[in-house]
Structure formats: structure tokens, C-alpha cells
Design goal:
The protein has seven helices and ten strands. It has 308 residues and is an alpha+beta fold.
Length: 308
């Protein structure tokens, strides 16, 4: 798909964070944040609050023994504690940065996470971490400060490591796509808002909106060529498309019902929108519903030993 289609997906996105406990990263100063829209930092903090509470809820609810009984190793349980530590550090860093910028940081919201045991938690963590990675990738195009771009890239690496660990633990291929998948601010918020029950009335309003929900009815994971069934409450026009976003590729598929076959080259954690545009433009003006995260088992890997 043409890069222009990719660029249309990157809608004023942002998620900038860095751990305050990491010595190489200096705290945000008022001077450093002068050219950064505080709303972007507030948005990033909103996402980091969600992840922070998500991990702490699970680790407070289930012991190492319960994780082991669910099929996970003690070493993986130890990894989860490191992840919880990381997410807390992101919250602390962003909070301090907003205060340095003269803003009042948003507080954590009340959340609901559809998980009843360690297996469901780890499966959901692989998806949430994947969304976080997509948020940071989408943010990169809109960050003007080189210092913030470096910080965002550093945290992106950490979030990708979190995602990789969770994917491996539930039997998914950690590196299922040759590149990551960027998502816009509204697309990420659409997914995140499904876990948010309410937020403090004192929190600043974010410049985001959630698109109408799109739900995958078919079980996951799936494979290229398989047909997925969807549901949505949106009234659809006569012509619409299921638009698959995977890595740096965008694949619109013409639809006449709430089903679509997974295109070739869609691999790993990918996303599906319903759009009015068949050329691959994914914008506020073209999105009718979504995104819905999907998991597509990648094709068997191939490589050419003559390419050196």
C-alpha cells in the first residue's frame, strides 16, 4: 500500500513517556516542554495509568503459585513484576513532566478488565501492550522535539519487550510482523476507552474521541484467507470496506455483509476498521467503526541465504 495511505492513518497522535528511575534520562523541564502540547502528555499519561493499574490489579489478585498452576513459569511471573515496575515509572515520569510544564496531571480512572484468571490476564496483556506499541509508533510522526522523540523511542523499545514477553508466554510468535503497526490517537483511544468506566471530573478533557465499536465475533487467532465475522451497531452505507492495518500496510476489502477474508500479508496483531474509503485512507472522515484488534498467525518464515 502507498505510503500516502499510511500517513493518512497517523492522525495527530502521541504517547510520550520515559522512566524517572532510569539515570540516562533527565527529568522534563519547563524549557523542554515549552514546545510540546500538554494535551499530548496528558493523553500519554492516561494510557500509562491504564497499564499501571492493569498490571497491579493482576499481581495483587493472583499469586506466583496461581500463575504457575495456569501454566506459566516462575521466571515469567518475575518478568511481570518488572513490567509493573516499568509502567509505574512511566506514570511517575509523565506526572513530573506535566507538573514541570505547569499543567495539572490527569489522575487514574476507574477501569474494568475482562479477565478472570492468569491466562486471560496474560492474553489481554499481549493485546494491550501491542496497542501501546502502536500508540508510540503513531506518535513518532507528530513529535517535533528531538529530545522527546528519543524518549518516546526509548519507551517504545520497553513496551515492545513487554509485548514480546506476553506474546511468547501465550504461544504467539513474538515477532509476527517484520515491522510494527502505527495507530492514530483516536484509534488507540477507541480501544483504550473500552476498559475505562469513568475518570475523575477534575481531569482535563482530552482532544480525542472514540470511534463506534467494532467487535470480532470469530475466534482468535486466525490465518490469512480465513473469513472473520464482525458486529457493530453502526448503520452502514451501501458501500463500505473492511480496512485491515498491519505493519506499514493497509488493505481495504470491499464488503456487502459483516464479514471479510483476512488479506495476504496481514500478520500478527493487526487492526480492522470499517471505512467509507477503498483507497486505504483511514481518517476521521472515513472511519465508520473500529479498530478491532485481531491476531493473525504469520506464514512460515522464509529467507534467502544468498542475500548477504
Amino acid at each position: 500500500m502507498k505510503l500516502q495511505a499510511l500517513y493518512s492513518l497517523l492522525l495527530a497522535t502521541g504517547a510520550i513517556a520515559a522512566p524517572s528511575s532510569a539515570p540516562p534520562l533527565t527529568p522534563l523541564s519547563r524549557r523542554q516542554t515549552a514546545n510540546i502540547d500538554p494535551a499530548i502528555l496528558q493523553y500519554a499519561l492516561t494510557l500509562e495509568h491504564l497499564e499501571n493499574v492493569f498490571y497491579k490489579n493482576a499481581l495483587s489478585k493472583w499469586s506466583q503459585e496461581e500463575f504457575v498452576k495456569a501454566g506459566f513459569t516462575p521466571f515469567f511471573y518475575s518478568q511481570l513484576k518488572y513490567v509493573a515496575h516499568d509502567e509505574e515509572a512511566h506514570v511517575v515520569y509523565l506526572t513530573e513532566g506535566l507538573k514541570a510544564a505547569g499543567a495539572s496531571p490527569v489522575a487514574a480512572c476507574t477501569y474494568k478488565f475482562p479477565m478472570t484468571d492468569p491466562k486471560e490476564f496474560v492474553a489481554l496483556s499481549s493485546v494491550i501492550e501491542g496497542v501501546g506499541v502502536s500508540a508510540y509508533l503513531g506518535a513518532a510522526a507528530g513529535i517535533t522535539s528531538k529530545a522527546y522523540l528519543t524518549a518516546a523511542g526509548a519507551i517504545l523499545v520497553t513496551e515492545a519487550l513487554h509485548q514480546s514477553a506476553a506474546r511468547g508466554a501465550v504461544g504467539k510468535i513474538p515477532a509476527a510482523n517484520v515491522v510494527g503497526t502505527p495507530l492514530g490517537l483516536n484509534a488507540v483511544f477507541t480501544i483504550a476507552s473500552q476498559f475505562i468506566v469513568s475518570c475523575p471530573s477534575t481531569n482535563v478533557a482530552l482532544p480525542v474521541k472514540a470511534y463506534p465499536a467494532l467487535t470480532v465475533v470469530t475466534g482468535q487467532p486466525t490465518a490469512q484467507g480465513n473469513t472473520l465475522q464482525f458486529s457493530t451497531t453502526v448503520s452502514l452505507p451501501a458501500t463500505y470496506y473492511f480496512t485491515f492495518v498491519s505493519g506499514l500496510d493497509i488493505f481495504p476489502v470491499a464488503a456487502s455483509s459483516l464479514s471479510a477474508a483476512v488479506p495476504a500479508k496481514v500478520e500478527g496483531q493487526s487492526y480492522v476498521f470499517i471505512t467509507t474509503d477503498g483507497s486505504g485512507n483511514v481518517t476521521d472522515a472515513t472511519v465508520l467503526a473500529g479498530p478491532a484488534p485481531i491476531e493473525v498467525t504469520p506464514s512460515s518464515p522464509t529467507f534467502d541465504v544468498t542475500i548477504l
